[in-house]
Amino acid sequence: MCISLISSIRRTILICSFPRIMASRQSSDMPKFKEALKSAKEVVILSGAGISAESGIPTFRGAGGFWRKYQAANLATPGAFRTSPSLVWEFYHYRREVAAKAQPNPGHIAIAQYEAKYGTDKTITVITQNVDGLHVRAGTKNLIELHGNLYKTRCTKCKEVLVNNDSPICEALEGRGAPDATVVGSDIPVKSLPHCKKTGCGGLLRPHIVWFGENLDPAVMDKAQAAMATCDICLVVGTSSVVYPAAMFAPQAAARGAIVAEFNIEPTPATSDFHYYFEGPCGTTLPEALAD
Ligand SMILES: NC(=O)c1ccc[n+]([C@@H]2O[C@H](COP(=O)([O-])OP(=O)(O)OC[C@H]3O[C@@H](n4cnc5c(N)ncnc54)[C@H](O)[C@@H]3O)[C@@H](O)[C@H]2O)c1
Ligand SMILES: [Zn+2]
């Protein structure tokens, strides 16, 4: 496959890639970073599952990356939904319930407070790969949800997208979705899963999430790329930087001269592309970085 085809696929389709290079430690000079942040006019905060880890929401990599015996990322695919919609719905029911009980942590709150304080002087955009809704619940306003939202459904027939906060989302999922590794498969009949209520439709609903192998919404992608193209500073928070297209955003910004600072508990394949690296739980490092 030629390089341009790979990069054009990466531009729109959610894929996982292997580490590009060995990460190396960058500057971790917090006072210097804060000076640069002060003079920035356009700031992007790009977040991933790691920012919600301290709220008790498992990431896809590391110890929390399994649900039952399945690797979580393998259930977030159109193929898994075709093969077993009930198993995938149990997984998403579990994720909806966990996220609904979780609270935004100091990392989410620091971002929302930073926007509230400086959002009139600076353009501050939060681009998240997360689907848990915690940025909104923390108070973030200018938010781009790249991969959808756990509390939205899409009809597989008429394609209608609706907000749905029901718990459980349907009767058959009540008490289901336990992550216990000894539970195998799912015996919920498809007719008992969530279905479209639109007159004359009745199609099977699916989570309105961009699954691995699917295209991102072009309008959402354009908005994110526009913010990335002009920002002076980008904070990359709690993302493994292996899920494309989001993984290419910050390295591209760094390559055109924007200052990029990474906040993670461990180096990622992109760390060596960036100017700053602040190691540690972002519930601790972000409030410090975003405070006056
Ligand atoms: N909360 C969510 O909404 C959620 C949860 C799991 C997966 N996902 C989805 O899975 C895909 C995974 O990509 P990803 O890069 O976002 O996540 P990921 O699971 O691939 O990586 C998580 C990253 O967060 C880091 N991390 C963990 N705890 C941290 C902490 N306390 N502070 C700072 N960093 C921490 C890890 O080292 C890792 O690099 C995305 O498409 C995303 O939509 C979302
Ligand atoms: Zn429908």
What's the short version?
The protein is built from 11 helices and 13 strands. It is α/β, with parallel strands linked by helices and 292 residues long.
List the helices and strands and how they pair.
Elements: H1 3-12, E1 15-16, H2 30-39, E2 42-47, H3 50-53, E3 66-67, E4 70-71, H4 72-75, H5 78-83, H6 85-101, H7 106-118, E5 123-128, H8 134-138, E6 143-145, E7 148-155, E8 161-163, E9 205-209, H9 218-230, E10 233-237, E11 243-244, H10 246-255, E12 259-264, E13 276-279, H11 282-290
Parallel strand pairs: 2-5, 2-10, 5-6, 10-12, 12-13
Antiparallel strand pairs: 1-11, 3-4, 7-8, 7-9
The structure holds nicotinamide-adenine-dinucleotide and zinc ion.
Count of DSSP-assigned helices: 11
Structural class: alpha/beta
Bound molecules: nicotinamide-adenine-dinucleotide, zinc ion
Order of helices and strands: HEHEHEEHHHHEHEEEEHEEHEEH
What composes the largest sheet? 6 strands, parallel
Q: How much is the average pLDDT?
A: 92
Describe this structure in words.
The chain is an alpha/beta fold and 292 residues long. The chain has two domains: 19-57 and 104-147 and 215-292, TPP-binding domain (Rossmann fold), CATH 3.40.50.1220; 58-101 and 149-209, SIR2/SIRT2 'Small Domain' (2-Layer Sandwich), CATH 3.30.1600. 35% of the residues lie in helices and 18% in strands. The protein is built from eleven helices and 13 strands. Strands 6-5-2-10-12-13 form a six-stranded parallel sheet, sandwiched between helices. It is elongated, with a radius of gyration of 19 Å. It starts with a helix and ends with a helix. Bound molecules: nicotinamide-adenine-dinucleotide (NAD) and zinc ion. Zinc ion is lined by residues 155, 157-158, 160, 196, 198, 201, 203.
